[in-house]
Amino acid sequence: MFKKIVFYLKKKLLLVIFIGFVIGLLAAIYTNKALEYTSTNESCEICHVHPHVFDSWKLSTHYDNPSGFRARCVDCHLPPKGQGYLKEKMIAAARDVYGLVFKDSADYNWELKSTLEYAQHHVFKESCLHCHQNLFPLTLTKEGQDAHLYYTQNEEELRCINCHLNVGHYDPNAIHAANVDFGMGTDENLKVFTEPAIVNAHVDFTETVPNSTVSFNMKAIPGGLYKIGSPENEQLRDADEGPQKEVKISPFFMAEIEVTWKEYLAFYDATAAEGRSTDTEGGRTEADDVDAISGPTPPYGQPDQNWGLGNRPAITMSYHAAETYCKWLSQVTGKTYRLPTEAEWEYAARGGTETPYFFEGQPKDFGKQGFLGNLFGKGSDSINQYVIYEENSWGKTQEPDMVEANPYGLKNMLGNVMEYCSDWYAEDAYEQLSDGAIDPKGPAAGEERVVRGGSFRSPAGDVRSAWRDYTRTEEWLRTDPQMPKSIWWLSDCNYIGFRVICEFDENTGKNN
User: Fold this and answer.
1) CA atoms within 13 A on the CB side of 273
2) Cα torsion at 45, 46, 47, 52 (round to 10°)?
3) How would you classify the pairing of strands 449-452 and 496-497?
4) Rounded Cα distance, 131 and 134, in Å
5) DSSP secondary-structure letter at 144?
6) Strand, coil or helix: 202
7) Which residue, of 161, 184, 189, 347, has the fewest CB within 10 Å?
8) For 73-110, how does the pLDDT look when each residue is reduced to its tens digit (9 = 90+)?
9) Phi and psi based region of residue 21 (left: phi greater than 0; alpha: psi -120 to 50; beta: remaining)
10) 57 versus 325: which is more confidently predicted?
11) If phi over 0 gives left and psi between -120 and 50 gives alpha, with beta otherwise, what is residue 438?
12) Residues of the chain with CATH 3.90.1580.10
């Protein structure tokens, strides 16, 4: 009897094991089928409502290429199997379903989501290298070999999409080559100025650039005393903003707005020759004038990021380019134009105020409020009248008319683009500064230059009047494929620009 019971139990156990095996096998098969189906392009289309994502994919080399291979969505947007594929798939699925159910696709800033800053979180370098295992094929150009060699020497800092951002989704406006036509085509119907502005006193004036259609406003900034830096109790203050010191600033003129593309291209057209027009076509070479200033070579790609030229601030130029622009402007106008010192910049930005901003409000009033902040109405919108920053920029520069001026009549001193100053950066610069210093110029030497004002990417704390930072020369040129790298254009910084000042000297009415 006991043996029969044991035999019966064994049969039951075997049956349970067999049924479990079958269920497990079926579960594995259908789970795999579910994984395979949810990895198809058709499945991706259910959640993704990007207006042109599939059309641009079909126009890209990932769809139409000599090899005939067509990359799927998951081939780029998930890592290879065995390298975190399932984990990332679950994360992506949860994110996409949440977006489909709880968000409105019309509210998405698709242009911003197509930038490198966002794409790097959804495109995996491991996936690129899984397909492109040979980085030095025989068909690769010399320029490509140089760029890929640089990549292999800096793999920790670089991603494939740093240079090949649009390879999976074709962008007709993306230029991945020397852009010899950049800036061509001017406003031929506008008045061409023949003389610069004549200034006889320390008053606002409009500069006119000879042999161009360009003019811009200069504001007369009065001299005075102020405290540079921020007090220790200022919200979101950084250590390099102190200790505060009182300094004296002499009168000067400052541009009402950041140097625009219209202004910068007048310099580019007048001084850049390589790869562009010749002297027989109205161009200019150094041989025409022993004092001629050599200007920028053609950029690689589209420096304005296809956001537009005109009155938008000129961006992506190096400190050397900004400084050379000032030298050229001084030469053609007969005045003394230059970049502002850090002390002059902050003095002008404050406009006589001592608070974090030249308008009312504290940094924490303007940050991201979150659910509770929005629920109870905490925060303020007053910053939107004066500053282009991360909360209102839509991820790109804006024209100066979007904001109101500060007490000195200057626009975009805070936000829009960071601005070069002439000072070398030092974290302890203010400790080295003496109280009562007159027109301080910063440390005598250094490695990087000061930048001020924050940009369209900056949070509220980084667009305060006292906020300071510095250039990052190597980082801002990492993906420049040219060898040697350009001294004129930055490949990895689209949020830097500059503003000019004009000295109040014998060329501008002083002592007249």
Assistant:
1) 15
2) 30
3) unpaired
4) 9
5) H
6) coil
7) 189
8) 888 898 888 888 888 888 887 887 777 777 777 777 87
9) alpha
10) 325
11) beta
12) 205-508
Number of helical H runs and strand E runs in the chain:
13, 12
16 Cβ partners below 8 Å, 6+ apart? Answer: none
Amino acid in position 407: P
Task: Tell me the C-alpha distance between 424 and 163, whole Å.
Answer: 30
- Quote the tokens at residue 386: 């004066």
Q: What tokens appear for 48 in the block?
A: 């993704």
Sheet of 437-438, strands arranged across:
224-228, 245-249, 437-438
Supply 13's token pair: 């156990």
- Close Cβ partners of 375 (under 8 Å, ≥ 6 residues apart): none
Which two tokens mark 456? 């369209």
Alpha-carbon distance of 381 to 191, in angstroms, equals 40
Q: How far is CA 158 from CA 40, 118, 152, in A?
A: 29, 15, 9
Strand partners, 193: 212
**Residue count (the chain):** 512
pLDDT tens per residue, range 353-412: 999 999 999 999 997 654 444 434 444 688 999 999 999 999 999 999 999 999 999 999
Cβ atoms of residues 284 and 292 within 8 Å: yes
At 402-413, the pLDDT tens digits run 999 999 999 999
Read off the tokens for 57.
Answer: 């994919």
Return the H-helix or E-strand segment holding 35: helix 2-37
pTM: 0.86
Q: 3-state DSSP call for residue 423?
A: strand
DSSP helix/strand/coil, 416:
coil
Exposure string over 201-227, b if 16+ CB within 10 A, otherwise e? ebeebebbbeebbbbbbbbbbeeeebb
- Going across the sheet that includes 468-470, the strands are 468-470, 449-452, 418-424, 496-497
Per CATH, the homologous superfamily of domain 205-508 is paralog of FGE (formylglycine-generating enzyme) (3.90.1580.10)
- What stretch of H or E contains 338? strand 337-338
| Torsion of the alpha carbons at 274, 278, 283 and 285, rounded to the nearest 10 | 60
Please say whether the dihedral angle defined by the alpha carbons of residues 121, 123, 126 and 129, taken in this order, is positive or negative: negative
Nearest to 327 by CA among 226, 242, 422: 422
CA distance 455 to 461: 11
Model confidence pLDDT, tens digit, residues 187-228 = 556 789 999 999 999 999 999 999 999 999 999 999 999 999
Q: 468-497, pLDDT tens digit by residue?
A: 999 999 999 988 877 788 999 999 999 999
